[in-house]
Amino acid sequence: MGPEVTASREGALLVVGDVVTDVVARHRGPLAGGTDTAATIRTLPGGAGANVACWAAHAGCADVRLLGRVGADTAAWHERELVAAGVRPRLVVDPEAATGTVICLVDTGAAAERTFLTDSGASLRLEPADWSDAWLDGVARLHLSGYLLFTEPSRALARTALAAARARGVPVSLDPASAGFLARLGVDRFLAFAEGLDVLLPSRDEACLLTGLPDPVDAAAKLSRHVSLVVVKAGADGALVARSGATPVRIPATPAAPRDTTGAGDAFTGAFLAALLTGADPQEAASRGCRAGAEAVRRVGARPPRTGSDR
Predict the structure, then answer these.
(1) Are 69 and 95 in contact (CB under 8 A)?
(2) Which of 22, 125, 189, 309 is least crowded, fewest Cβ atoms below 10 Å from its Cβ?
(3) Using an 8 Å Cβ cutoff, are 224 and 259 in contact?
(4) Best CATH choice for the domain 12-18+47-99+120-297 from the list 1.10.10.350, 3.40.1190.20, 3.30.420.10, 3.40.47.10
(5) What's the CA gap between 268 and 71, in Å, rounded?
(6) CA dihedral 162, 166, 168, 171 (to 10 degrees)
(7) Neighbours of 32 (CB within 10 A)
(8) Is the pLDDT of residue 246 over 70?
(9) Domain boundaries, the chain
(10) How confident is the model at residue 257, as a pLDDT?
């Protein structure tokens, strides 16, 4: 399952999810229809699942593993990038589909808001045949990217992985990933899957969509009656930690001047899970998640910096 990395005494984190190529186009102001809009464009490794794994390793988790599916076109590049980030990749090479690609349109105004154009490609063609219960050997936590739920093959894989983890007593977390895709999947279908989770990490918009409530505080509390620990990521407003229906605790954001908000939620999730593995309580873990999110928005792209690089 990739190069050997010294195992953490707390156990490994296994992430199952998407590995994609990000094409990040940073522009200022509205796009000009029918003509050119000046932009700075970079091609970078991405994917919510892969990003979470890289940020967990960056946050100090010594044994981070990733199961994903890529095309032959960029498989070697993605493996090199993951290994360099301290992740042990198990990348299934799809014989038919190319690696997924996401075009990230980032407005370089003050909010650095982004819009995604997504071609999931091979990333959501993961299927139960790609799973082995052996992937859980030595694993203390399993994290599933919510993107897995948006196609039937990868949804079946997610159900298989969840059942295997629960049989071993391994806690499972999930990030819903996309309010747009979530609306198409359907709230009831998502919540039925979520009943088997230990931790849910939605964004503010996803939490409100899943509950039908406009206030994220109320939404967090309601969701925590379905999943015992819910952490709502609220960007510049920090995070909300809700447990078993109780009033959520607000965790303040770490101030940051954003350049690119792509991957900020993944950074939060990776650092949060790494903190839980070292024994931090959910509030402290969420504080570390906020710090990682602030670090992420200060840079272009969705991955953490590597040693000796400002990338």
Answers:
(1) no
(2) 309
(3) no
(4) 3.40.1190.20
(5) 28
(6) 90
(7) 10
(8) yes
(9) 12-18+47-99+120-297
(10) 87
Of 212, 258, 213, 250, which Cα lies nearest the Cα of 231? 250
* Bridge-based pairing state of the strands 229-233 and 239-243: antiparallel
Q: Are strands 249-251 and 239-243 parallel, antiparallel or unpaired?
A: antiparallel
pLDDT of residue 6: 33
Q: For residue 117, how many other CB atoms are within 10 A of its CB?
A: 11
Q: Which of 26, 17, 64, 62 is CA-nearest to residue 44?
A: 26
In the chain, what's the furthest Cα-to-Cα distance?
Answer: 57
Reply yes or no on whether the pLDDT at 261 is more than 50.
Answer: yes
Structure tokens at 203: 């964004």
Q: What residues pair up with 143 in beta bridges, in sequence order?
A: 15, 173
Closest listed residue to residue 44, CA positions, set 203, 258, 263: 263
SS3 labels along the chain: CCCCCCCCCCCEEEEECCCEEEEEEEECCCCCCCCCCCCEEEEEEECHHHHHHHHHHHCCCCCEEEEEEEECCCHHHHHHHHHHCCEEEEEEEECCCCCEEEEEEEECCCCCCEEEEEECHHHHHCCHHHCCHHHHCCEEEEEEEHHHHHCHHHHHHHHHHHHHHHHHCCCEEEECCCHHHHHHHCHHHHHHHHCCCCEECCEHHHHHHHHCCCCHHHHHHHHCCCCCEEEEECHHHCEEEEECCCCCEEECCCCCCCCCCCCHHHHHHHHHHHHHHCCCCHHHHHHHHHHHHHHHHCCCCCCCCCCCCCC
The number of beta carbons lying within 10 Å of the beta carbon of residue 186 is: 10
Q: What is the spatial distance between Cα 226 and Cα 240, in angstroms, rounded to a whole number?
A: 16
Name which of 123-132, 154-163, 203-212, 255-264 the model is least confident about: 255-264
